[in-house]
Amino acid sequence: MAEDLNIRFSEEQYATKAEVKKALNCNLIEPIFKKINEYRNVYRKKVFVKNYTGLTFDVCFLKSINLKLENFKKEFEKFNEKYQRETNPLNKQNYVVNNILLFKEIYKDESLDRNFATTLIVNKFEFLGSDNEKKKISSYFKTLDFLRSKENEEVNEKFLLNLYRYYSNNNEENFRENEVVDPYEIVNLTSLEKGASPDRISDLILSLTEFLEKKEFDDLFKAIIVFFFINFVKPFGDRNKEISILLSRFILSKKYKDFALYIFPFDSKNLMRILLFDHL
Q1: I need a surface site. Which of 5, 38, 127, 165 has the fewest CB within 10 A?
Q2: DSSP string over 15-27
Q3: How far, in Å, CA of 13 to CA of 6, rounded?
Q4: 231 with 252: CB under 8 angstroms?
Q5: Chain centroid to CA 217
Q6: Can you give the pLDDT of all 280 residues of the chain as single tens digits?
């Protein structure tokens, strides 16, 4: 029974006490849920970032999730080592070309070819044409250059605002001051879609920056939390998803440098690849 509960309520389904009670059709839920929590606590980490109510999040990295992350980390570091061993500048450039060409799958645009990618790199990611998709790609990689120049800076409220201003090319001085506008005109938005109330954003972002200063968490774990948290809070009126990915890459670049910023070809075949590249 205990083994069954571990599978049903700790691995595939992270159930609440009410859900466990309903599933088991049992009134004496306290001793059962206590055992479930004891199991979860083996894998639970307090990350200190706050939710809408001001309480801090716990993250439960169970065995199945830990295995996925460890496998990704090994693959990431193996690819990084291969890139670092490369000495031919043209071959190194080709890594970036391949990364730019991933946008071809996103935009379904045949004009996003190797010639365009190579020209964009040679021109230091400047694009003067009128094609909106190519402008977005140019802006994305120019922002990576911007982040590269800030490699020694700590992430704080000022840093995040500067990142947004640079990427969106506007002069916003503060975080979002209005509720999130629903682009699909759906009346009943969930809390996750709405983002945080504007009066809570600064406090929530402060909790994130304090978390990033913690030495007990590695860069990969921090990048994951950053991605989810920015999308959860939605500190800006738009482009929150793009900002979350740019910031995640920046966090990883503290250790992995240019490889994390420009090179690793995140795609939809892996959890972290989805987190860090499914962005437009």
Answers
A1: 38
A2: --HHHHHHHHT-S
A3: 9
A4: no
A5: 15
A6: 444 444 445 444 567 888 888 888 888 889 888 888 887 777 777 787 887 777 787 777 777 777 777 888 888 888 899 999 999 999 999 989 988 888 887 778 888 999 999 999 999 999 988 898 899 899 999 999 999 999 999 999 999 999 999 998 888 889 999 887 655 444 445 555 678 889 999 999 999 999 999 888 888 889 888 988 998 899 998 889 889 889 999 999 999 999 989 987 654 344 444 444 333 3
Per residue in 78-93, is it b (16+ CB within 10 Å) or e — as a string?
ebbeebeeeeeeeeee
Compute the distance between CA of residue 137 and CA of residue 120 in angstroms, rounded to an integer.
9
- Three-state SS for 192? helix
169: tokens are 């090319």
Distances (CA, A) of 134 to 107, 109, 121, 195: 10, 10, 13, 29
Which amino acid is it at 183?
P
180: buried, middle or exposed (CB in 10 Å: 19+, 13-18, 0-12)?
middle
Residue 278 φ/ψ, nearest 5 degrees: -80, 80
Tokens of 46: 């307090």
Q: What are the angstrom distances between the C-alpha of 46 and each of 51, 194, 216, 219, 258? A: 13, 25, 11, 16, 30
Amino acid identity of 214? K
Residue-wise over 131-160: b if at least 16 C-beta within 10 A, else e? eebbebbbbbbbbbeebeeeeeeebbbebb
CA distance 214 to 244: 19
